Amino acid sequence: MTDSRLVADGDQVRRRRQCANCQERFTTYETAELVMPRVVKSDGSRESFNEAKLRAGMLRALEKRPVSAEAIEAAVERIRQTLRARGDREINARDIGESVMRALKTLDHVAYIRFASVYRKFQDLDEFRAEIDRLSQEPSQEPSQGPSK
Predict the structure, then answer these.
(1) CA–CA separation, 30 and 112 (whole Å)
(2) Which residues does 139 contact at the CB level (< 8 Å), separation at least 6?
(3) Which ranges carry the ATP-cone domain (predicted)?
(4) What tens-digit pLDDT sequence spans the chain (149 residues)?
(5) What backbone phi and psi angles, to 5 degrees, belong to 138?
(6) Beta carbons of 112 and 101 less than 8 angstroms apart
């Protein structure tokens, strides 16, 4: 091997190599195969982590809200990296839901309330009011929406 360095996005290693027999040089790119933890659902069943489901849930909550696609993708990636960094073989679906709620709270308060109403199974207006009151009691933290779509 003549040279080794990280590629710009940081998840690959670029290596320059030279054949010992013919001296020809070539480049290889190596990527670690990182396995996501399995998801343990509330009924005890287990399934593979599905990034598409994570993204779809966030997009449903963010529908017709002024949040850029880049901000959404960045939030999905942060959640995915956080889950993987835990190093657990399994993770409760509830933990994923809480991660989504934290991400939505920083992106858009309306989307946060939408997601919370489904995730926490609000039954009436009082539950909506209570969550909105909790949100408004927190230190002023305006959502970081980034550029519009």
Answers:
(1) 38
(2) none
(3) 37-127
(4) 667 777 766 678 889 999 999 999 999 988 876 788 999 999 999 999 999 999 999 999 999 999 999 999 999 999 999 998 888 999 999 999 999 999 999 999 999 999 999 989 999 999 999 999 999 888 766 665 554 44
(5) -70, 155
(6) yes
The helix/strand/coil state of 3 is strand
3 state SS of 36: coil
Q: Widest CA span of the chain, in angstroms?
A: 76
The amino acid at 50: N
Q: Is the dihedral of CA 104, 106, 110, 113 positive or negative?
A: positive
